[in-house]
Amino acid sequence: MEGKLTTIRSEIEKNLSRSGHNLASFAKICGLNRGSLSAILHGNPPKPMSLGQIDAIIKAFGFPDGWLYPLYIDECFNEEKVSRRRVEPFLIRCAELGKQQCIDDTLNRLLEYPKSLDIVYSIAEKLFNKGKIDESMFFYKIVAENESDSYSERLAISHYRIFRAILSIVDSDEKLHAVITFEPFRNRLPENMQLDGLLTLTQLSFDLRRWIKMESFADELRTLANAVYRDQLRKSQDRRKEVLHTERPLVVYYGHGYLLKAISLTKQGKYEEAKKYTAGYADLSWFEMINEEGRQAVEQFRLFAIGNGFTIEMLMGNVDVLPNYTDFLADHPGEILAGLITIMDAANRYGFSADNILTRFSREMLRFEGFQEPNNVDRVFRLYYQVAIYQINRKRYVTGVDYLVKSLELSIKQNNGKDFINCITLFEMSRDYANTAQQEKYRELVKGVRKNEKITIDDGKRVSIV
Questions:
Q1: What is the pLDDT of residue 80?
Q2: What is the pLDDT of residue 355?
Q3: Nearest to residue 382, comparing CAs of 355, 350, 414?
Q4: Tell me: the pLDDT tens digits for 371-408?
Q5: Cβ atoms of residues 402 and 370 within 8 Å
Q6: Residue 462, H or E segment
Q7: Exposed, middle or buried, 234 (CB in 10 Å: 0-12/13-18/19+)?
């Protein structure tokens, strides 16, 4: 029907005639003033319509929401001017209704006007603040692609919003692209957004296993959190000064600055140095300006410090802590997955038996298969890969290859080329011990990758399966 429409007023007149209503009766049904409706339809020049008025007319005719929207676009523009009070709510409503063609047609005209990005950015922020995160991303991307001032705050915030929206993504290539794109803008944000931006950069560097980058971002986060904390302490003594409002309690950023630094050092094998930074977040009870959420974070950091202390000892070869570590994991189920990765890694390094551990947590390991959150998908991969090595080294080939095939499948899901290559290499070394079903599953997985032609290794290069 939309293809047959001519002008918005002629379409209203046509349907008004078909309805059998006169202007007065239809105005009553619409809830509009008769004089206003007459001015809209018959004025010389016609009075522009607001979005609320056109929605009322559409509803009165009984047509679907947004039915006349393709013709409403002209109402947003008047000769050489754009009507912000009409175009802004119109584009917001189009986004909510999923009317992408109307959005595209409107933006094609809007972007020809000076200061149009002010409007586009405002639309993005309003959608974001209404919880319409997915809908807002399109408009933030328009700002990011068209802003000419590389140091403008709205450009930095647009990149920040886009960056934060990728947290649910599993694909390593997309994560890497997001980090590279956002990194130059991290210091151009307001301080409260800088804290979250740096925290996310550090966490994604962990996901990508870029330990040196992770350490660098953790240093920036720790420095900024310390500076903000001191500044907020001063401001808290002066009621006239506004206190910075952050997405999470300030202690969360402060603690993570130390936590993520310690983890990055642990991953680099710098265990003694990692111990020092672990102590930095083990007891944050002294932290001031803290609410209940902050106190819960302090307690969580305390538990993290205990668990990560065990991790460091295990990776240093101190197997004596294993009984206490497993008891700790049993008491804190949320730490079991990360803890098992450490234990299996240490078992493969130092040759001790982890059979009792695998038996003790066998039910939890079955539950891990259902995890979908990106960070946990990566953790499950790392656990399965370590278990595969462990079982193959102990000549339990069927079990080991089963875990290896599961690891391969997860590496493909994450589009992680290095993990993929490691799995392929280990499988080829163990191929003679794989049964028929395992070999067939392996062929299916590799064939699927070859069909898609490419998989990404984490330096941004792509490799083909031949």
A1: 78
A2: 97
A3: 414
A4: 888 888 999 999 999 999 999 999 999 999 999 999 99
A5: no
A6: strand 462-464
A7: exposed
pLDDT of residue 362: 95
393/258 Cα distance (integer angstroms)? 36
Query: Which helix (H) or strand (E) is 48 found in, with range?
Result: none
Strand partners of residue 77: 82
Q: Residue ranges of the domains in the chain?
A: 1-49, 190-316, 328-466
Q: Six-digit token pair at 403?
A: 């875990």
pTM recorded for the entire structure: 0.84
| pLDDT for res 454 | 55
* 3 state DSSP class of 460: coil
CB 346 within 8 Å of CB 319: yes
CA atoms within 13 A on the CB side of 123: 31
pLDDT of residue 452: 67
- Peptide bond before 184: cis, by omega within 30 degrees of 0? no
In 3D, which of 99, 24, 110 has the Cα closest to residue 55?
99
Gap between the Cα atoms of 118 and 256, Å rounded: 35
Check: CB of residue 393 under 8 Å from CB of residue 348.
yes
Sign (positive or negative) of CA dihedral 203, 205, 211, 217:
negative
The residue behind tokens 């560097």 is 205
* Regions in the chain scoring below 50 on pLDDT: 1-5, 458-466
CATH of the domain spanning 190-316, picked from 1.10.3470, 1.25.40, 2.60.40, 1.10.10: 1.25.40
**Residue in 257, 303, 297 with CA at minimum distance from that of residue 280:** 257
Q: How many Å is the maximal CA-CA distance in the chain? A: 90
**pLDDT value of position 464:** 31
Q: Cα separation of 350 and 450, whole Å? A: 37
Indicate the helix (H) or strand (E) that contains 237.
none
* Rg of the chain, C-alpha, whole Å: 29
Residue 374 carries which side chain, given as an amino acid letter? P
CA distances from 412 to 108, 173, 197, 382, 441 (A): 39, 12, 28, 13, 13
